[in-house]
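Blinded run. Sample ID left blank on purpose so nobody reads anything into the name before looking at the predicted structure. Input follows.
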Amino acid sequence: MKKTIFLLSLAVLAALALSLAMPRGSLAADDPKVIKFAVNNLKVYEDTTRVLAEEVKKLGYTLEFIFLADNTQINEAVESGEYFANYHQHTPYMEEFNRGHKAHLAAAFKVFTDKSGLFSKRYASLDDLPRGAKISLPVDVGNNFRTYVMLANAGLITIKDGVEPARITQNDVTSNPKNLEFIEVDYTMLGRALEEADAGFLYATVAAEIGLDISKDALATEPPELQAADIIAVREENLTDPRAEILKKAFYTDALKTALTDSYAGRNILDPAW
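Blinded prediction complete.
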């Protein structure tokens, strides 16, 4: 009898702990008026998500969001069905994730374009880079190639003929006269990696967060035809779900445009998709 009472007490305590852990106002996962949203924890994503939640509320829905640092985890949260949509990536990154994880994510709509470039805190020009200079760049395939394209366009390396730009890797570098050393790091570490590298890849948003301006400080910028817009991603079967349209309506507002610029002290770092 005592054992039964003890077990019941544990169950009550567990249920109480779970209820306290849930966000205030949280609704059931299967409520059609709730949109569960997994988001990267970089400042611009956090800032705009909080504004998005208010716009979603105006449309009669609730945005239940979580901020995460791991982009793979963010995608897995949607692939598993735990979350309805996510906000952190562009289409090339998503497509590479789908290939590598046999996943079924799709772009519901575009959000903004985050331009990329090569930066340095030590040199004023790519031509000034010494032999053996260390170049930091993203490890993920969806972003990795961008650095090689910019370096090739600047004449510092040569790329094998016939390789599709988005498929370029270090193995496709056929000439490297300065013997540049490529240091691949996780996307979230790019800003910090630039402190140790001679030059490195940064998106405009990441550059802004460490005090750099892509329009003034970039030593090279990515060709417009290779730029990829950030997207809101859902599982393929949810592309026609009403919640995807609600997210789009809430995003494509003046309030979100203002949030994008406010996140960077009024500077037009990002190009909205609407």
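Unblinding after everyone has recorded impressions. DSSP finds ten helices and 13 strands in the chain.
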